[in-house]
Structures are given as C-alpha cells and as structure tokens.
Amino acid sequence: MICSCIAWKVVIISCVVLQLTAVNGTLSKSDKKAKKAKQKDNSNVKSVFERGLVEAQTQSADILKEYYRYCEAERDKTVFKGKWNSKGYDIAKVFSKKFDLVSPVWLQVVSRPNNEFEILGGHDIDSGWAIEVMQGRDNLMVPRVLFDKWSLKDYENLFSREEFMAKCAKVITSFIKKHNFAGITLELWNQMPTSMQMDATHFIIDLSEILHKAEKSLTLIIPPLAVQPSSRVPQFTKENFEELKSSVDYFNIMTYDYHMQSSVAGPISPIKWIEESITAICPEDHEIDRAKILLGLNFYGIRFGEFSGAQPILGHDFVDILKSNSPAVKWQPKDEEHLYLYKNSKNGENLYLFYPSLLSIKKRIDLAKRLGTGIGIWEIGQGLDYFYDLL
Questions:
Q1: Radius of gyration of the chain (CA)
Q2: Topology annotation, domain 10-20+78-301+356-390
Q3: Which end of the chain is more exposed for a tag (fewer CB within 10 A), N or C?
Q4: Beta bridge partners of 11
Q5: Residue 360: what are its φ and ψ, rounded to 5°?
Q6: What per-residue confidence (pLDDT) applies to 81?
Q7: Long-range Cβ contacts of 67-70 (<8 Å, 24+ apart)
Q8: How far apart are the C-alpha atoms of 344 and 53, rounded to whole Å?
Q9: Which residues does UniProt assign to the signal peptide (predicted)?
Q10: Among 96, 98, 93, 95, CA closest to 78
C-alpha cells in the first residue's frame, strides 16, 4: 500500500486530434433522452463492488446490463494519464474530482527555419471545458506537448547548441504560461533516435528548470520494457530514470499494446510485464521515486482475427460486439485479463478480443498500490462508465 504521506494522483490525456475513432458520434434526440435517463438513474446506484461485479466469472449479458451505471459517491484520488476523444470530454467533467492531472492532446512543437520553434494546436484549446473540469483547481491541466514530424536533422539542430535548447524550452514555457496551464506532458522520448538519449536528457533537464522557475510541472512519457525477452534492453533505462528523477515530476510509462504488433493473439498488458517494466527502471522500493511513476492503464481493447490481424476496440465497439455476438468470456489468470471469443458472422473467422474489465483494472490498481506508483489512463473516453467506480 502507498504510505499515507504520499498522495496518489490521477492524470488524464485528452485526444482532440482523432487517433482512433470517436467513441460516440452525434447523438440523435432519442439517444440524448436515453443518455439523460441513464444519468438520472445513477443517483442511487451502488458501487461495482457492492453490486458484486468485480469477478473473474462474468457474462456478456451482465456487462450490457451494468456498464453505463456508475456510483456517484466520491472515492480516494489516484493518478491517471491518458488521451481521449469526444466522450473523454464528458467523462473528465463528470469524474473530475477523481483526477489530479488532466492532459489533453492539443499541442505540437514544430521546428522552423533558422532554428525557430513554434507551438501549434492552440486552436484546439477549449478554455470553457478546461474551466469546467478544473473547478478552481489551477494545478490540474497539463496538456501533452508532442514533438511532431521532426526529422533527424531537426533533432540534431536542436541539440547542437545550448542556446537552441533554451530557446525551445522558453517557447514551450511561454505558451503554457499564456494559457494558465499547470505544466506539460512531454512526448519526446519515443519520437527521437535512441542515439540521442544523452542530448535529450540534457534538453529535458533544461526544460524542467525553466518550467519549474515558472512554477509549472513536467510529466515525461516513457516506453515500457521491450516485449521480446531476447531484447530486454529498454529504451528507457534505470540510468535514464536516475538522471532525470530530480528534474521530472512524473514519468508516465506506456504499459500497454504488448501484442499489438504481433499476428498472434495475446494480452494487451500482462500484469507481470507491467511490474517488470516498473522495477526495471526503479528496482528499489523507494517511496519518493516510485511515487513519480504512473503505471499505464489502457481503457481500450484489441481484437485479433485469424485473417484480419490486430485492431483497436473502443467502448462503443465493445458494447456492439456484446449485443451482436454474445461472445464466450474467459478469465486469463496468468495475464489477469478477460478474453472474449466469437466468430465473424460473415466469413466464420475466429476472433479473439482482449478488453479491460472491472477485475483486470482492479488488479492493476492493486499492483500500483503495492508498488507505490500512480496510474495513467489511456484513454478515458474509450472505457465503460462503471470503470470509474474503481477509482
């Protein structure tokens, strides 16, 4: 369990730029009425624990009956970080008190000629929504800043001189100050060549100093342990963590998509692999260091087909699949995930769907508590409403 002296937080990343597909399209009038009716029903709804839903043995019918019903009682806070789509905006408002950090995917850093830098995405900022979500908490909003479409030459130019790195850091910080954000969620480590890690570390430290002087925070997105056992040399090492831990406020580790690049059906985030990814960079049970790590928690699923390969599955897709196919549901004790089995009605293809469940999420929250980390949701708009009872 986490020591009482360390707060457990919640970080969320919002996806305004479509990366998959929107969870919900435009609602018809009847849909809106149904949605309002469902929301009204939640005033006296018991938690998923009280309803006995957090179980290994479950059925499609049980999920369809309960997935939209959530308990409105407040629970202890946790740290989550993820990205979202249109439904994520609504979720962030409804459950904002459960989250400590919200990170919308709005902003990109681009390299311009003559070593100039510019922040794009300002037109995506929804200030009215941000005010609603923050509810007076000025330290909540930490938008993602992505180094987008940078070439090798762009990185070489940035890292070639101290003044260029300082200029880029000041451009980012000035933009964040202008819009009164609490800080940033930096997506740089996964974008750049591995050979430039030393230069990137230098830049991140410089950026953190400028942000911290402005009383802004820095969360860094980092990769998990390599999937193949034969290549377990992580892109982000214990040495990287040691070098950066005094400069970075949080490290969001992307512990999902374990089998996404494989043609073989498999779990999204085996629980043993999650733990190994965390202990690989922070092996000691050090309270302060572990509290800086956010365990990545997926709220989307992945479907594997014999012919069609791997495809991401969002919440509305999942509900439609349950309604149309009534798949067999099996708990995978080794990986601690639920597997849904069914056939394509058109061509008979065997389909294997891994989608988060109440029990799989609870197992990962329990792991985060045991390891002393926070958690980061990727992404809230893709999950089912009753998932938030677990927070």
A1: 21
A2: TIM Barrel (3.20.20)
A3: N
A4: 101, 376
A5: -65, -40
A6: 37
A7: 67/319, 67/384, 67/385, 67/386, 68/38, 68/384, 68/385, 68/386, 69/38, 69/41, 69/42, 69/45, 69/385, 69/386, 70/42, 70/45, 70/385, 70/386, 70/388, 70/389
A8: 28
A9: 1-22
A10: 98
Q: What is the 3-state secondary structure (H, E, C) of the chain?
A: CCCCCCCCCEEEEEECCCCCCCCCCCCCHHHHHHHHHHHHHHHHCCCCCCCCCCCCCCCHHHHHHHCCCCCCCCCCCECCCCCCCHHHHHHHHHCHHHECEEEEEEEEEEEEHHHEEEEECHHHCCHHHHHHHHCCCCCCECCEEEECCCCHHHHHHHHHCHHHHHHHHHHHHHHHHHCCCCEEEEECCCCCCHHHHHHHHHHHHHHHHHHHHCCCEEEEEECCCCCCHHHCCCCCCHHHHHHHCCCCCEEEECCCCCCCCCCCCCCCCCHHHHHHHHHHHCCCCCHHHHCCEEEEEECCEEEEECCCEEEEECHHHHHHHHHHHCCEEEEECCCCEEEEEEECCCCCCEEEEECCCHHHHHHHHHHHHHHCCEEEEECHHHCCHHHHHHC
Q: How far apart are CA 348 and CA 346, in angstroms?
A: 6
Q: Read off φ and ψ for residue 364, nearest 5 degrees.
A: -75, -35
In angstroms, rounded to a whole number, what is the distance separating the alpha carbons of residues 345 and 351? 10
CB atoms within 10 A of CB 283: 11
214-244 tens-digit pLDDT: 999 999 999 998 876 555 555 899 999 999 9
pLDDT for position 312: 93
Give the tokens for residue 211: 């942000």
Q: How confident is the model at residue 319 (pLDDT cuts 50, 70, 90)?
A: very high
Tokens 């794009």 found at? 120
CA gap 120, 147 in Å, rounded: 10
Where exactly are the structural domains of the chain? 10-20+78-301+356-390
Residue that wins the pLDDT comparison between 203 and 264: 203
Give percent of the chain with pLDDT exceeding 70: 82
Hey, what amino acid is at 60? S
